[in-house]
Design a protein that fits this description.
about 200 residues; mainly alpha
Length: about 200
């Protein structure tokens, strides 16, 4: 039977200790590297950022391979969580410009743009989204943010109003909201009055 934990903290403390035990026993094998990675992720969830950053930095320094690449991505995300916007953006852009990276370039560029948007650095976020739109030939950068999808039945959101309801639940106000409000005011076919 699966172990049940009273709190998330208890779960991640147990996980960190277990993964560190695997790392000690497995020496320098691939299993040890993966265990070290998961122990670092557990430390991130515990708010033990210094310990997590040290372990992820050491993994990243190993060069090429799956675990170093996972560590690069986890470090970028750790910087984002800590509010280190410039470090996070630099790390995501580093993933995007590394030809050996296993992280898709468009994904890394989009993460960098999202970090800028979350930090309310809207001019930089728009420029990042614009670069992404131009590089991946998607037309207007605003279409990266909201896509009218009424006839797409597999989508969880389907239309801009459902996206907005989801964002409201998380108290998010994305940089593209003014453009959507303008389209709404101008009577865009895909917009409706559900944008308050």
């Amino acid at each position: 039977p699966a172990q049940v934990f009273a709190t998330a903290e208890e779960k991640y403390k147990t996980a960190a200790a277990a993964f560190e035990g695997v790392e000690r026993r497995a020496g320098s094998s691939a299993v040890a590297l993966r265990a070290r990675y998961y122990a670092a992720l557990s430390r991130v969830e515990l708010g033990q950022h210094a310990e997590a950053e040290k372990a992820l930095s050491e993994l990243q320094a190993r060069g090429a391979g799956l675990e170093p690449e996972l560590a690069r991505y986890a470090l970028a995300d750790l910087h984002r969580r800590k509010g280190e916007v410039d470090k996070a953006v630099e790390a995501y852009r580093g993933l995007a410009t590394n030809p050996a990276s296993t992280v898709p370039r468009d994904f890394a560029l989009r993460k960098a743009a999202q970090v800028l948007e979350d930090a309310k650095r809207f001019a930089e976020a728009r420029a990042a989204y614009r670069q992404l739109a131009e590089e991946f030939n998607v037309g207007s950068y605003e279409t990266l943010l909201t896509l009218p999808m009424r006839a797409v039945y597999w989508s969880d959101w389907g239309d801009p109003q459902r996206i907005l309801r989801t964002l409201r639940r998380f108290d998010r106000r994305p940089a593209w909201l003014p453009a959507y409000a303008r389209a709404l005011a101008q009577g865009a076919e895909w917009a409706s009055a559900d944008c308050d």
